[in-house]
Write a structure and sequence with these properties.
The protein is α+β, with helices and mostly antiparallel strands. It has one domain (6-132): Gcn5-related N-acetyltransferase (GNAT) (Aminopeptidase, 3-Layer(aba) Sandwich). Helix content is 27%, strand content 29%. Strands 1-2-3-4-5-6-8-7 form an eight-stranded mixed beta sheet, sandwiched between helices. It is globular, with a radius of gyration of 16 Å. It binds coenzyme A. The site of coenzyme A has 19 residues, from strand 5, helix 3 and helix 4. Pfam families: Acetyltransf_3 (PF13302). InterPro entries: Acyl_CoA_acyltransferase (IPR016181), GNAT_dom (IPR000182), N-acetyltransferase (IPR051531). One of its GO terms (molecular function) is acyltransferase activity.
C-alpha cells in the first residue's frame, strides 16, 4: 500500500488528510448528479455531511485515499484512490484478488483540464517508486466515456466486462511498470 501522505505534481497536491475547508467540495462531489452518474448516483446531503464530520473527527487518513487539491489555493478539486480491491468483489486478474485499483472523481467544474490525468500519473509514479511491479486495476462503467478515455490515456487496457451495481463494468488493467507515468 502507498505510504506517501503527500504527492506533489505540477498544478496539484494529493494529500492524505481531509481538511475542514474541504467540506463544500466533498459535499458537492457526492451530491452532484452529473459527477455521480456512473458511480452510484447522488447521495443525500445530510448523509454526506455526517460522513465528512466523522472523517474529520477521526483525523486519520485512510491509506491510498487522497484529496486532489489545487496546489496554489489548496481547494479540493476531487479525490483519488489507489488501494486494494477487495477479493470478495467481482473484477480481478489474479487468483487471490486484492490487486491495486485506481479510482478518481473530480468536481464538475474541474473536468476538461487534465487534472485527473495529472493526479493519476503522480500517484502511479509514487507507487512505482515504492512498490514492486504488479498489476493495477481500473474498473469503470463501460458507458462512462470520459473515464474510459482517461483509462486508455494512462495505459490501461480493457480485458473484459462484468456486472456490478446493476451496470456493465469494464475491467481494465496494466502492470504498474508500463502505466503512463
Ligand atoms: C472521469 C473524470 C475524472 C475524467 O475527468 P477529465 O477532466 O475528463 O479527465 P482528464 O484529467 O484526463 O482530462 C482530459 C481533458 O482535459 C483536457 N486537457 C486540458 N489540459 C490538459 C492537460 N494539461 N493535460 C491533459 N489533458 C488536458 C483534455 O484535452 C481532455 O479534454 P476533453 O474532455 O475535451 O477531451 C471525470 O469525468 C469525473 O470525475 N467523472 C465522475 C467520476 C467518475 O465517473 N469516475 C470514474 C470512476 S473510476
Amino acid at each position: 500500500m502507498l505510504s506517501a501522505t503527500e504527492i506533489p505534481s505540477e498544478r496539484l497536491l494529493l494529500r492524505g488528510a481531509l481538511h475542514d475547508a474541504d467540506r463544500e467540495g466533498f459535499v458537492e462531489l457526492h451530491t452532484d448528479p452529473e459527477v455521480q452518474a456512473y458511480i452510484g448516483g447522488p447521495q443525500p446531503r445530510s448523509d454526506v455531511e455526517r460522513r465528512f464530520d466523522a472523517a474529520i473527527a477521526d483525523g486519520t487518513s485512510r491509506s491510498g485515499n487522497y484529496v486532489i487539491a489545487d496546489n496554489t489555493t489548496n481547494r479540493l478539486v476531487g479525490t483519488l484512490m489507489l488501494a486494494h480491491r477487495s477479493a470478495d468483489r467481482p473484477g480481478h486478474v489474479t487468483e487471490d484478488g486484492g490487486e491495486l485499483e485506481l479510482g478518481y472523481v473530480l468536481r464538475r467544474g474541474a473536468w476538461g483540464a487534465g487534472f485527473a490525468f495529472e493526479a493519476a500519473t503522480a500517484a502511479l509514479r509514487a507507487a512505482t517508486d515504492e512498490l514492486p511491479d504488479q498489476p493495477v486495476l481500473l474498473v469503470t462503467q463501460t458507458a462512462n466515456e470520459r473515464s474510459m478515455k482517461l483509462a486508455a490515456r494512462l495505459g490501461f487496457r480493457p480485458i473484459g466486462t462484468f456486472e456490478e451495481y446493476g451496470a456493465e463494468q469494464a475491467l481494465c488493467t496494466a502492470p504498474l511498470s508500463v502505466l503512463r507515468i
